[in-house]
C-alpha cells in the first residue's frame, strides 16, 4: 500500500487527468491532445494550486532542462514546480551543452536519456525538439520552439478558467504577431469550446498549416476561427484579449521594421471599448510598451501576474502526467 503522503497527489493526477485515450509520451504541441486530455491537465493544475501541493510524488525523478533561449518564467516555474513534486531539475544552458554543435541532437538525446527521467527543451527551431523526441527514450516537453509553445497555452487557459469558471462559449482574441504562442492558443480554443478572433498585420499571420488544423478542430467542436488584419474588428465582443512581444528572441535585427509594421496594434483602453464588458487582458511576458500601454497592462482587468504564476502549476500537471508512476 502507498504511504499516505502519496495518496492525495496521485488521486489528483488520476482523477482530474483521467483520459479515455492514451496520453502522448511527449508534449510537443497542443494538437497532440484531445479535449478531455487538455481539460484534464487544466483541472490537475487547478487542483495542485488549490492544495498548494508540496509532495514527493516524483521523488527520485530528474528533469534535464535544455535552454538554447533564456527565459525567466520557464526556468523558475519549472525548477520550483519539479521541486514541489519531490523531484529535481538540472538547468543546461547553451554554455553548458552545445546542442547539435559539438554533439549531434541524436547523440545528445541518447546520452541524456540515460541520466534524466524527462527532457524539457527551450529551443530555436521546432525541428530540434522533434528530433529530441524521436531519439530520446524518455518524455520530451517542448518549453518553446519557433512554432509552438504549449506550456504557455495551458497557463493562459488555466487563468481564463479561474476567472470565468470555464472557457466554454467565450470569445478569445489575439492582437499581434502570428507566432508560436498564438499557434497553441488557437489550437486550444476549440478543445475548451471557445471561439477565437485573430488580428495580425499583413505578412505576419499564423502558419497556414496551423490555421487549417485549428479550423478543422473548430468545425468539429462547433466553434469558430476568425482572422483579420483589423485589431478593432478582432476585439469586438471578445472576453479575453491577449498579445505577446512583436520581436522574439533571434529577431532583433528586424526590430525597427516589425515595430513599424505593427503600428496601430498596441492594446489600449480605446481599443478595448469594443470588447465584452467582462473582458480580461493577458500577456505572456516579457512586455514592451509598444505592445500594450501601462493603463491596460497594470489595469484591473489585467491578469498577467496570475498568468505568470500559472506557468508553474500547469507545468507541474504536465510533469505529473508524463512521469506518473503506474
Automatic annotation (TrEMBL):
GO CC, any one term: cytoplasm
Catalysed conversion reaction: carbamoyl phosphate + L-ornithine = L-citrulline + phosphate + H(+)
Domain Aspartate/ornithine carbamoyltransferase Asp/Orn-binding as annotated: residue spans: 168-320
Aspartate/ornithine carbamoyltransferase carbamoyl-P binding domain residues: 25-162
EC number of this enzyme: 2.1.3.3
Keyword Amino-acid biosynthesis: yes
One Pfam family named in its UniProt record: OTCace_N
Gene Ontology biological process terms from the UniProt entry: citrulline biosynthetic process; L-arginine biosynthetic process via ornithine
InterPro entries, A to Z: Asp/Orn_carbamoyltranf_P-bd, Asp/Orn_carbamoylTrfase, Asp/Orn_carbamoylTrfase_sf, Asp_carbamoyltransf_Asp/Orn-bd, Orn/put_carbamltrans, OTCase_ArgI
Swiss-Prot/TrEMBL keywords: Amino-acid biosynthesis, Arginine biosynthesis, Transferase
GO molecular function: amino acid binding; ornithine carbamoyltransferase activity
Keyword Transferase: yes
Similarity field: Belongs to the aspartate/ornithine carbamoyltransferase superfamily. OTCase family.
UniProt xrefs under HAMAP family: OTCase (MF_01109)
Full protein name: ornithine carbamoyltransferase
Amino acid at each position: 500500500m502507498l504511504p499516505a503522503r502519496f495518496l492525495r497527489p496521485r488521486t489528483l493526477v488520476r482523477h482530474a487527468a483521467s483520459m479515455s485515450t492514451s496520453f502522448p509520451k511527449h508534449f510537443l504541441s497542443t494538437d497532440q491532445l484531445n479535449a478531455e486530455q487538455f481539460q484534464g491537465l487544466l483541472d490537475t493544475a487547478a487542483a495542485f494550486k488549490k492544495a498548494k501541493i508540496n509532495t514527493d510524488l516524483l521523488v527520485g525523478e530528474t528533469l534535464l532542462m535544455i535552454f538554447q533561449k533564456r527565459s525567466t518564467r520557464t526556468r523558475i516555474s519549472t525548477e520550483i514546480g519539479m521541486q514541489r513534486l519531490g523531484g529535481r531539475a538540472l538547468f543546461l544552458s547553451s554554455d553548458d551543452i552545445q546542442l547539435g554543435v559539438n554533439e549531434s541532437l541524436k547523440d545528445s538525446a541518447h546520452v541524456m536519456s540515460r541520466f534524466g527521467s524527462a527532457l524539457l527543451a527551450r529551443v530555436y527551431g521546432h525541428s530540434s525538439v522533434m528530433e529530441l523526441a524521436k531519439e530520446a527514450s524518455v518524455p520530451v516537453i517542448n518549453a518553446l520552439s519557433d512554432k509552438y509553445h504549449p506550456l504557455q497555452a495551458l497557463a493562459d487557459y488555466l487563468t481564463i478558467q479561474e476567472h470565468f469558471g470555464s472557457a466554454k462559449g467565450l470569445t478569445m482574441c489575439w492582437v499581434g504577431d502570428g507566432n508560436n504562442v498564438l499557434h497553441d492558443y488557437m489550437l486550444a480554443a476549440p478543445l475548451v469550446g471557445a471561439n477565437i478572433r485573430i488580428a495580425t498585420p499583413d505578412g505576419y499571420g499564423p502558419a497556414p498549416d496551423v490555421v487549417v488544423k485549428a479550423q478543422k478542430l473548430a468545425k468539429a467542436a462547433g466553434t469558430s476561427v476568425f482572422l483579420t488584419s483589423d485589431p478593432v474588428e478582432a476585439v469586438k465582443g471578445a472576453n479575453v484579449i491577449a498579445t505577446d512581444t512583436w520581436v522574439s528572441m533571434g529577431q532583433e535585427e528586424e526590430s525597427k521594421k516589425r515595430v513599424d509594421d505593427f503600428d496601430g496594434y498596441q492594446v489600449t483602453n480605446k481599443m478595448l471599448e469594443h470588447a465584452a464588458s467582462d473582458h480580461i487582458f493577458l500577456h505572456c511576458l516579457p512586455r514592451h510598451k509598444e505592445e500594450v500601454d501601462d493603463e491596460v497592462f497594470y489595469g484591473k482587468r489585467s491578469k498577467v501576474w496570475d498568468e505568470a504564476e500559472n506557468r508553474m502549476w500547469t507545468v507541474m500537471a504536465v510533469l505529473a502526467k508524463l512521469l506518473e508512476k503506474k
